[in-house]
């Protein structure tokens, strides 16, 4: 049975898609079977990994019932990917039937046993697409930049996760907060890191020890349709992301021991 992890933050520009792509790739490089799912209508996950997101069936077609999930999976060197594109932007209005919160969970049933990890990228909003990801997930990872406004976005996650746990998915767990674009030499970064620890406690979690430093390669890799782990293996952000992937594995295993029935 797959471990399902969603990357989430309602604030944009926090490195969420880059982190999603890197986690997918990092796990795949360790020989885990990984499926990445793009739930963001911008389609950045598929695009940043070199996929043609316009002339192909996507997760939108699965939700509409016009394609099976097996038919929209694209096999890549980074892992299997289900892309998205702008057609998904109308989800809030188009998918308005009862039980719409379970669209993704229902779609995944036929592939759950085929993967070790399913990694989901979400839009920078707490909408029906994000809720779909939360409903089917075991864990949430919250990337955030060391800025005050980023902290506010994270603090607002608490109410949403509590609602989802109460009504839809009691097993939902916040695996951790991840600091991205981090520069330890600035006072603000260190102050926000301290505040992030406090917010993490409110979410019954902690901040990942790995902190992702800024680097030109982080921005260059998506433009070349690849992951930073392969594009710039010696860069500082790559070393940070490798540590992050290891920490994710450790935390997932610890969570499974603590709650073996999940």
From TrEMBL:
Keyword Magnesium carried by entry: no
Catalyses which reaction(s): ATP + H2O = ADP + phosphate + H(+)
Superkingdom classification of source: Bacteria
Record's keyword terms, sorted: Hydrolase
Claim: Hydrolase is one of the keywords in the record: yes
Annotated Pfam families: AAA_31
InterPro entries: AAA_dom, DNA_Partitioning_ATPase, P-loop_NTPase
Family note: Belongs to the ParA family.
Classification via PANTHER family: P-LOOP CONTAINING NUCLEOSIDE TRIPHOSPHATE HYDROLASE, PARA FAMILY PROTEIN CT_582
The protein's name in its UniProt record: Sporulation initiation inhibitor protein Soj
